[in-house]
Specification:
By secondary structure, this protein is α/β, with parallel strands linked by helices. The protein is built from 19 helices and 18 strands.
Length: 466
Amino acid sequence: MVLIVDDKHNMLRLMSKVLKNDATVLTAGGGTEALRILANEPVDAVLCDLKMPDMSGLEVLQAQQRLRPDAEFILMTAYATVGTAVDALKLGAYDYLTKPFEPEAARAIILRALSRAGLAKTDAVGASDSFVLPGVLARSQVMRELATLVRRIADSDMTTLVLGETGTGKERVARAVHELSPRVNGRFVALNCAAIPTELLESELFGHAKGAFTGASSERRGLFEEADGGSLFLDEIGDMRPSLQAKLTRVLEERTIRRVGEAKERAIDVRLIAATHRDLEAMVRAETFRQDLWYRLNVALVELPPLRDRSEDIELLAHHFLREQAERAPGRRLVGFARLALDAILAYDWPGNVRQLRSAIERASVITSTGEIGLGDLPRELIRAAAGPEEDPTLTIGSWSQAIERGRIETGRRYLEAVLRRHGGRVADAASHAGVERGSFYRLLRKHGVDPVAFRRGAGDPGSRK
């Protein structure tokens, strides 16, 4: 709900028209009337003029913060000065507009404010006490206990090993160990061992002398030297080859490194934090991971639980990721999750853990056409899991009317794709076949998320996109 406050009737009428398809719009001809509305209506955003006969916009802002503290405030003024804008922002205004302004520019700012206000309502995620560690959101007991362990480990200088499935957030925990440690003013250097070719990994870690190998045209510091005084994070250490494991073991024992092609040893002061999704103990038994390195790493062990074992955190994280998307795409209005969509998110077991959840929310925030994430905006695997394995997932979720609406949308999309395929992606011919004006046909394509380019001759089978 948006409240427009201005003593000019033309401005009230203009902004009501601009926002009529986006929100419920209330209007007030002055500050006194605005305060009465704020006291009685669930207003999410206020667009208020600065100069009015009975009250200034800054006074309305101060009253709004008392009456509707969760609402966002946008000041508009024809008397813009840097001082006025700064005063408004200092008092907590979301943004300001300088008259005259383009109506669409004002609409974009108001939609951003509505997104922020809407997510703040549905989101217990923004609360600072939900961050159990720097960069780590959780409310589950298992994660709170893990956070206590991490804080104790961080206060020491011990080599740390973080275990957990892919996507559980091992690097975030590693960064938290660094940020909570006495080394926080040093560098945090991260390397994924699986992402570097085996023959280059040694040089990457330890550096090399000039001429040490073909292409080594100058000497180079390795990551151990780069991280001196700070922390070095080696992700996927289970993918490191045995010969390099032996050298790493020596580094941890002697606290020195030797560049490739050099005989000289260099002292280093680095805290090593390693991580892997592999079972290192099983690898030790299979003799694919060195036992002595395992003993060196297994000093301070942190085991991250999979997301399915901390289901209390799923809703918290989903709202947080949606908030991130709203902030990254200020032109889009994202207001939360429909009940059916949230139920599907909570029911899914998330084999890809937090990373998969983030990707699903990112996708849904792009797909949604209403600003509210619906069931149909989610990846198909979530819908299938929510419906059960024995039936079409769109049949049993929601009411009769919702099921019919989903079927209508799906049929419409399939029809548009079939017509475009038949006419080789030529929109004019497809629109004529469908009996729809070309402009309207383009709107249908946008609404159903169909790209005509993919159906042009030689573009390949668009079915592969699904």
